[in-house]
Amino acid sequence: MRNKALGAAVVALGIAGATVLATGTAGSHGYTDAPISRQKLCANGTVSNCGDIQWEPQSVEGPKGFPAAGPADGKICAGGNSRFAQLDDPRGGAWPTTTLVAGQSYGFRWQFTARHATTDFRYYITKNGWTGTKALTRADLDPQPFLTIPYNNQQPPSTLTHSGTIPAGKTGRHLILAVWTIADTGNAFYACSDVKF
Length: 197
Prior knowledge:
Elements lengths: L1 H21 L6 E6 L3 H6 L17 E3 L34 E2 L5 E10 L3 E8 L21 E8 L4 E7 L7 E10 L4 E10 L1
Parallel strand pairs: 3-9
Antiparallel strand pairs: 1-4, 2-9, 4-7, 5-6, 5-8, 8-9
């Protein structure tokens, strides 16, 4: 009887391990949907030819420490994850945009499919003159985040909105990069949202 119980436990652990491996990293997953992110546009079918990201909008996970570390330039929107390289493709500047008003308050919303202890959330925006016709680099962004929300190792709820002020003086097309930094792993989640003023 003991051998049967031990065998069942081994099988259960094997199935659990295979499930974790099949779904990528275990634990935290999330994306922004206000302003709508590129991965959400792919998942809801607004944008086609997206590859795997259409099924996994919550999985844009890469090394944390942005901007000093993290994904390489040109691979930021995909979190450095080659499976989601379509997110770094500028598509000739044709990603759909959310209209915002510079200098006004906005609710930046995250959706989480799994939660994790969190260091903070940071929001960056491109410099004036960015056209959206090339993959995002650090040089394209204002050097400091315009909004930082410390989270003190807490787990976020399934939906979380941060109220912040859009930087004044922004005109034309821009990209907002949202970075969710995980406290107890070496990773962060990345979401790029195309906007216009």
